[in-house]
Design brief:
10 helices; mainly alpha; Rossmann fold; 2 strands; 50% helix; single chain; two-stranded parallel ribbon
């Protein structure tokens, strides 16, 4: 991907398509080795994987806003969370994490790289270099730095403004900011106890503490 194209979703989707009906023909036409992305649980058919994991508590809050605020749906978080726990929106965060960090690691061995969202956000250059090296993608430090600059959250938001009407609620943006620890505003009390009951093992596997630091 040419860094100078900036973060253009259309370019991204053509270069690294997601696993979905609308991109199946494109994926089939791409020569090996090909890059695809997916939110799927572990699949043995995938040969080499970069697994990007984010703290499940922040992931849930982000997912909530994607399914409600961004979609214009009025649904209080406790009600939405109850549906989430029942898998009404597909596999939960803990289902996904456990599948990759148990069976996935056992199956892929050296062909899986675990990348944490928080590490990439804190130190983007060395962590992206690790990913490009793992995937055998030729990219020098200057190219990666330029790509990171063009794909910044501010630039992504500016592109979103060009494509959509002005958002009255910043939580409706696809690029909310990737904040850490924001889950404490919504996921607390009995809701957090329920989250821990479901996700404690996944938190430990992914290296996240049970309590906020």
């Amino acid at each position: 991907m040419d860094p100078e194209k900036g973060f253009d979703p259309a370019v991204f989707n053509r270069t690294i398509p997601s696993v979905g009906a609308q991109y199946l023909s494109l994926i089939s036409s791409m020569p090996d080795p090909r890059l695809i992305f997916s939110h799927t649980v572990f699949r043995p058919s995938l040969r080499r994987v970069v697994y990007l994991v984010r703290d499940g508590r922040d992931s849930i809050v982000s997912f909530y806003h994607l399914e409600t605020t961004r979609a214009g749906v009025k649904l209080p978080f406790p009600e939405w969370f109850n549906l989430y726990c029942m898998r009404r929106f597909g596999p939960r965060w803990d289902n996904n994490v456990e599948s990759w960090l148990t069976r996935g690691k056992e199956h892929l061995v050296d062909n899986i790289l675990i990348a944490k969202f928080e590490d990439i956000k804190k130190n983007p250059l060395p962590n992206i270099q690790k990913i490009t090296s793992f995937l055998n993608i030729p990219a020098d430090e200057a190219a990666i730095s330029r790509a990171l600059e063009l794909a910044s959250i501010d630039n992504a938001r500016e592109r979103e403004k060009l494509e959509k009407r002005k958002l009255s609620d910043p939580n409706a943006s696809f690029y909310r900011g990737g904040k850490t620890g924001q889950w404490q505003e919504l996921l607390n009390g009995d809701l957090y106890d329920r989250f821990l009951k479901l996700s404690r093992r996944a938190l430990h596997l992914a290296g996240y503490p049970e309590q906020a630091s």
